[in-house]
Amino acid sequence: MSANSTLLASLTLQVQDNENSGQTIVNRQVPQFSFQAVQSPYASYVTVQPGASAIVLVASPLLAHFFYVRNATTPTTILSQYILQVGWQDSLFVVTNAVALVPGGLIMLGNQNINNSSGSFTQLNISAPTNDNPVVAEFLYAT
Amino acid sequence: MPNLNSVLGLSITTVNVNQNQSTINVSLQGIVLASSQIFYDQFVPCPTTGFVVPSIPGGSAFDVYVRNLSLTNVLNVTLTPTGGSAFTVALNFATSSSTTGGIFMVWGTTQAVGGFSALTLTGVGATVPAELYLAS
Fold first, then answer.
1. CA-to-CA distance for A90 and B130, rounded, in angstroms?
2. What is the pLDDT of residues B33-87, one digit of tens each?
3. How confident is the model at residue A58 (pLDDT cuts 50, 70, 90)?
């Protein structure tokens, strides 16, 4: 299958020193990540219920090489009660509920090279811990 | 006491190749972790025996960014969530010098929850250079 879209991701990392008038002491514009995608499903607002079965996003028939998930819950003072759990089924390694994101937190994995399956994945799981509150997820993945 | 701001800007766009039209446009600027310590190295040689980050700043890193700089070899990133079990992510190499190798990033916005207590970068088949950023 041929690519239907070009996915571009740009990152800037900065560190500001508040003891020195907010001077920028690290300023890194990461080279743009580009990926030729067949599918690139995106959702801006998905409510994840606590303790419910994970939302499972399956990459099929192609392997996925990029995902981005953000805890889009409106910031609250009790961040620890609005956790979004993200896991994925790597082609080489089994990863389950690997990362906990607080509101505003995000995770991104991108492998541009589709000629080598390392880093690709077949499934993305998004869930919220039991006893916490509903959380909002934003996600995008690409095959 | 945090005396630094670790700030991320991220934009993700998709462009329809047939119509040359932008279809998705996510633009996030000013995602901040009030931070006490940061570590940045633009070129970390990671041997096949593994480069262990000698001291995660502050005990746990809440912002983690790793990029494979190799054009020939995979880089394995092994992370241990604080209080959790380690997992490994493979970062593929770039196909040419004009493309970008695999990127893995987790960006937290508070030191209160989550974080990673250990990080090992392992070259697969050879020593692999990586770009690394941590904040806590």
1. 21
2. 999 999 999 999 999 999 998 778 778 999 999 999 999 999 999 999 999 999 9
3. confident
Q: CB–CB of A100/A84 below 8 Å?
A: yes
- Reduced to 3 states (helix: H, G, I; strand: E, B; else coil), residue A133 is coil
Nearest CB among B7, B11, B100 relative to A14 is that of B7
Task: Give A-chain residues touching B26 at CB under 8 angstroms.
Answer: 42, 68, 138, 140
- Asked if residues B132 and B97 have their Cβ atoms less than 8 Å apart, the reply is no
* CA A95 distance to own-chain centroid: 14
Is residue A17 domain-resident? no
In a domain, A82, yes or no: yes
Taking CA atoms, what residue in B is nearest to A12?
Answer: B9
Cα–Cα dist A37/A126, whole Å? 22
The whole-number pLDDT of residue B98 equals 85
Please give the ipTM for the structure prediction: 0.96
Which positions 65-84 of B are in contact with A (Cβ < 8 Å)?
65, 67, 74, 79, 81, 84
Q: State the total domains in chain A.
A: 1
Full residue range of the structural domain in which residue A94 is found: 39-142
The closest alpha carbon to B28, from B111, B121, B83, B109, belongs to B109
CB B123 within 8 A of CB B48: yes
B40 touches chain A (CB under 8 A): yes
Look up the CATH number of the domain holding residue A89: 2.60.120
Catalogue all structural domains in chain B, each as residue range(s) with its CATH number: 37-135 (2.60.120)
Structure tokens that stand for A9 in this block: 């991701």
Q: Domain for residue A29, yes or no?
A: no
